[in-house]
Target: ROK family protein
Amino acid sequence: MKIVIGVDIGGTKTKIGLVDQHGKCHAKTFFRTREYPELESFLDKIKSTSDELIESLEGEVSVLGCGIGAPNASSKNGTIENASNLVWKESVPILEKLKLRMPMPMRIMNDASAAALGEMLFGGANKMKDFIVITLGTGFGAGIVANGQLIDGYDGFAGELGHVDMTIGDGRLTGLGVKGGLEAYVSATGLKRTIMYMLSKYMTESRFRNIAYNDLHGEDITKAAEEGDEIALMAFDYTARIMALALANFTAFTQPEAFILMGGLTNSGKWILEPLEGYFNEYLLDVYKGKVKILKSGMHGKTAAICGAAALIWETQEH
Amino acid sequence: MKIVIGVDIGGTKTKIGLVDQHGKCHAKTFFRTREYPELESFLDKIKSTSDELIESLEGEVSVLGCGIGAPNASSKNGTIENASNLVWKESVPILEKLKLRMPMPMRIMNDASAAALGEMLFGGANKMKDFIVITLGTGFGAGIVANGQLIDGYDGFAGELGHVDMTIGDGRLTGLGVKGGLEAYVSATGLKRTIMYMLSKYMTESRFRNIAYNDLHGEDITKAAEEGDEIALMAFDYTARIMALALANFTAFTQPEAFILMGGLTNSGKWILEPLEGYFNEYLLDVYKGKVKILKSGMHGKTAAICGAAALIWETQEH
Model:
């Protein structure tokens, strides 16, 4: 069996899996990124984890290469640079260093761009030429496809839409210090911050008056919404409204046929997606109305990021 | 001599010229768009004006086709739809109707996208693969090139960046009713509105306290700035700051190598371009700093729009 190693480096977890040409993940595991703050030991861990996964497969296995998705990765430079949700802050020449340990074809890309490639190869976007994948995890990422091609940018850093300023230079600071940056509102972290904001703004009773910021998790907010907690409902509505305005703005850029959403926040289902749809159609310019779909990813949630990373190598193969 | 008819339909003027394969304009003229509020007579006027120009050329002339740039034009549908600065408000099937009068190869495109194509074929961008042309006229337009290709969008309406909302749903209304839309701030019209805003905000003495909004022209504001009028200086600074924030946001989208500026407002030279450069570098995300140029168009100001329109046809020719 021919497989590609897919590595998704996230702020919380680094996921590794073995992906076949149909986007099926045959073995996968993860480790906690922050447990390997030293780059060298982090790369050793990727190498040893990959080896273990390959050994776990039965039959003959041929490894075609390794694809990596990571926040703030530059496909052109093979680096991760100043990623706000990762422990290494400077420019990390990750591809060069990992190739020393694993000599094989290797590519790295912004995680959301990799996800967009995964959607084209394995997901629901395989007939679309113009779409944008939005990843809603710890941060906010975007992978842009236009004219059937992934948009890389001059230097490999296209699609950093989490740092778009929504407020003419005022508002919340993102992890990169961008005032009013979208990611500070629309992401798992943004939703937690909005809970704090709602607690400051209203006197409404809520379970969140008894939970510290650091003890707060996305799933708790979904559960609270389901139980009718008004602060949770207002926080989701506020998040959906800002996200809708951002997607309406992004539409004016490349006019995608669809936005494809993935990541933890999309699991909050109707609490975020229903108001999002409503506000989106309200904010959309007339010329775009009725032409832009909001879809959930066609890839399996638990392996979408791994398959997206593997798509970087599968894309280069004839199959 | 082989030539292409280039037509630039603007809110104020419709310009027509005859352009050779090197982007040289051999004859040109214009008429006032608003004098032809009926679509049929407007198209008759384009036909008769083109004929007169062709007759004015000496020697044998072979017309290869006609390229049209217009606000809110859809290249895919051959239409102009709901253009806020034009007299026809509905969807106008302009290509189909003009072809009846002038049977020849014909293409239409958003004026700023046509300008981007002109920059690639005839201007300063002929080696760049990732750049954005910004047209600063009555409105604000953008033509986006990424991976060496013009970004059209699903339906031909990519690049409508003048209607991006900069203020989370608050702020000035654009002609299309978008609250906080960029065009309401950064355009010749936006600059006039900002003069009014500065007159409302400050009590500073200014020549503009004696001029009515409808009597105000862009050139007056430049002249006032040159003479040290503080309201004019503040208005330019305010415009430059909002524009810089917008360009910094746009950078996060496709990461262009350069923004190429054209249109009336760029004639205000240092009053807008110098503060723009300063604010832009301040707002730009670290990962982009020092990598994104702001350039003035390499095409001749008076014919840039005509040559851009003609580029739609020249692009399809082998030469």
About this structure: Chain B has a mean pLDDT of 89.
